[in-house]
Amino acid sequence: MVSLDEHYPNPCAFCKIAAAYPPDSSPIPSNPDPEKVDPQCFLLLSTPHVLAFLDILPIAPGHILLATRKHYQKLSDLHNTVPNTTPHGNSSSDAAAAREAREEARETSRALGEYLPLLSRALCRVTGIEDWNVVQNNGERAAQVVPHIHFHLIPRYQEGRREVEGRNGKVDVGMLKSWRVFGRGAREDLDEEEAAGMAKELREVMRNVPAVMRWTLASPTKLLGVHADTSRTPRAGQDGSQDGSQPQRGSADASKTRAILEERDATFLEHG
């Protein structure tokens, strides 16, 4: 049995993947080269804040990892990563860097929350499963092997649902114990041919939810090119209006924003 330590040496393996696969115009890569890193990486998702790829030592076929792009060791590191105020005497550049770090942590948290449901839907559709685990470990005693925030999405197959070729013949993945989540044992090397096919299917499923992708890449206000507070209705007398009854730019943008949200939700339900 291959040791996890052989696959996950220092420096951080996930930072290596993040450097090899920078964010592109689309969060779902079209045909990423798995040999950009060693061992191979079967990439599913690459955004400015998160990445997703197949686990190289899966507990079950389709085992996905969702990781932060920036190196945070534990989930608690995403909260108040730097003080809200800098000590007296620090330069304005230090304050700007602190604000940037806080914003990066907030956006990363949002991205994790937005992509976990999307990856779950894709995993269910491609594998045919109805049950799966979402697991996130923090620290060595909690079975965190790679000290970099990541979530496991582990499919749980029904008995007899699917068989795969194992080292000693066919293995009924439905017989994998549902409690097998933590620890270093009972994990097989990722079959590269099977992984390439599954990664392609997962990317195709996620790519067929365009409204969700647009929502994740940018907020509705950014898509519209307006400031976040333009949806507020101006008071009487603003912008040349005497009684506030004239159509305002803010209310029109708010309607467009609602339309985008409705389109996103409808598409999500349609493809779910």
Automatic annotation (TrEMBL):
GO terms under biological process: nucleotide metabolic process
Record's compositionally biased regions (Polar residues): 78-90
Segments of this protein annotated with the region Disordered: 78-106, 230-272
GO molecular function annotation: catalytic activity
Organism: Friedmanniomyces endolithicus
Protein's recorded name: HIT domain-containing protein
Classification via InterPro entries: Histidine_triad_CS, Histidine_triad_HIT, HIT-like, HIT-like_sf
Entry annotation: catalytic residues: H150 (tele-amp-histidine intermediate)
PROSITE patterns according to UniProt: HIT_1, HIT_2
Positions occupied by motif Histidine triad motif: 148-152
Pfam families the record matches: HIT
Gene3D superfamilies (UniProt xref): HIT-like (3.30.428.10)
Domain of life: Eukaryota
Stretches with biased composition (Basic and acidic residues): 97-106, 255-272
Segments of skewed composition (Low complexity): 237-251
Domain HIT: 30-164
